[in-house]
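Archive record
______________

***
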Amino acid sequence: MTGSTPTGTAPGGVAAVEAVWRIESARLVAGLARLTGDVGTAEELAQDALVAALEQWPSTGVPPNPGAWLMTTAKNRAVDGFRRDAVHRRAVERIGRDTPPVVDESEALDDALDDPVGDDVLRLLFTACHPALKREYRVALTLRCLTGLRTDEIARAFLVPESVAGQRISRAKKALRDRGVRFEMPGPAEVRSRLAGVLEVIYLVFNEGYSATAGDDWMRPALSTEALRLARLTAALAAQSLPTEPEAHGLAALLELTQSRAAARHDPDGRPVLLQHQDRRRWDRLLVRRGLTALARAHDAGGPIGPYTLQAAIAACHATAPSAEETDWARIAGLYDVLATAWPTPVVALNRAMAHGHAFGPGAGLALLDAVDTAALADYPQLPGVRGELLAMAGRHREAADRFAEAAALTRNEAERALFTERAETARGSA
């Protein structure tokens, strides 16, 4: 976060609290999970601290160290609860005439919070991705814990109603508690069973950071940076525990290559810039090299290639093309054909249509787009956005303008809305 708000002033009010929450929530929940040993309790304590911040900061201002404020508030609530439990426990023990020596629980809790050993966020990720949870439960829970996303934003990421997303989060926390799942890294034998869930969550967190679903910002760099860090850690862990598993390296490659374009995704005024119009001199060549190296490791691992490695191969085509005009769209279209078989999601089908439009003409792309499951993407702005792009490529500018306007109405991201609105105006001017 840039700067701090002096006590007694409150620029931004609730918005300032939400901005801090986005940055601090993952480490807050992870630290509290180490303290309590329970992910559900940790998330509830973090939410209590958020409520306290919402009550106080709009009038008092954001404190100089907001992350520490949230942690202290949550820790104090945990200590109070721990003491209440301890008082009850000692009363029972006295009745049973078997009272053990009293220990200072609050000091033990302080020591737990100050322990720097290990990576708490990675532990949180592997704990919440316990195989006892249904896939949709563990992904929803870890998205909430790692990103601080609201329930409605998680629902949008899943393309499900908000009530469904809320139920998944609640049931995930209850399932972990009922099964006595503790906050810890799994042993080598258990890493494989949790790896797919971990990779999926990292992927979704990165996507939310790279293209925010809602709000004023085109991107949330803190989320994509944290996801990239977690992908690197997970790939290193997989290299030790699962040397023939390619997908952890494939995901790392995908995120490195995608993140390499981050600086070029907006102009000096902060307005979004699409891939085909980006200044490739602004791409981070170190990240490109890291991505290509990780992609090579994925191929060298020897295991079955999956959706992350395939997407990384697509990203590599863009990263290695000298210019947008020299992009190997035929290869990209072929990779999307394989990806659509390995990972047959509506979003992949949408991207496949766009790739075929570039490779074989807009008519080919529109034909594939007509076969996409539009019901699953009813509120997804990229659906009319892609159709608008293909229609514009076909010279059908009036129809394209209508689709861009539809996309602008659907998106909840202000920067994306401005982009679609501009595309609609350009298409009308060309009609």
The mean pLDDT is 83. The CA atoms of residues 220 and 257 lie 17 Å apart. The chain is about 70% helix and 0% strand. Residues 1-96 form a domain with the Rna Polymerase Sigma Factor; Chain: A fold (CATH 1.10.1740).
